[in-house]
Amino acid sequence: MLKLKQLAPWALLSIAATIAACGGSGGGGYSPPAGGGGGGGVGGVGADMIGMDLPTTTIGVENDPTWGTVGGYTQSVRSQVIAFAPGTMITIKNLSSSTPHTLNVIGTAGAPPANFPSNPSLSTSASGGSVFGIGYATGSISPGASVSVTLSNPGTYLVGCAYHYSSNQMRDVVEVASGATPGPQATAPPGGGGGGGY
Ligand SMILES: [Cu+2]
Asked: What is the structure's pLDDT at 77?
């Protein structure tokens, strides 16, 4: 145990500053409020963003109470069903440090739970232009890069990554509806590196 009485006042100040500095990093459980202008969350996911990473190694797999098992996409820190109001221009960002990803719209969801096709044909090329809907695909997004698109059409969409849909179950549900809210977040995957990358 450190004997504080033996330290000079400047030493105490130094210790306090060190403790304060440590408090700001490595947290992981904190969800920043919306509207942060792109900062905040682990991996840099901000308001009106979808973050992408491998569900099995970093951002986890969520067993959503409505839609079932999803993973690989998030609006905050870890995998979750994602939701936006119609008309939102979103930014889809690759949170990985070394792995490319895509977001392809596979189809619309029927009644829950999500009925993901077993082996869809997903292209790594961009398609669908600037309209998010069936046939839309971001194309390959490099680590740290992002693509923007406007959510013009309300609906509930099944999405997935062309590289990791089958190998890592990188697939999710995107709800575009007034008042829609994101689902609960996954817990950290075992041995999963903390979800960071920065
Ligand atoms: Cu991927």
From this structure: 93
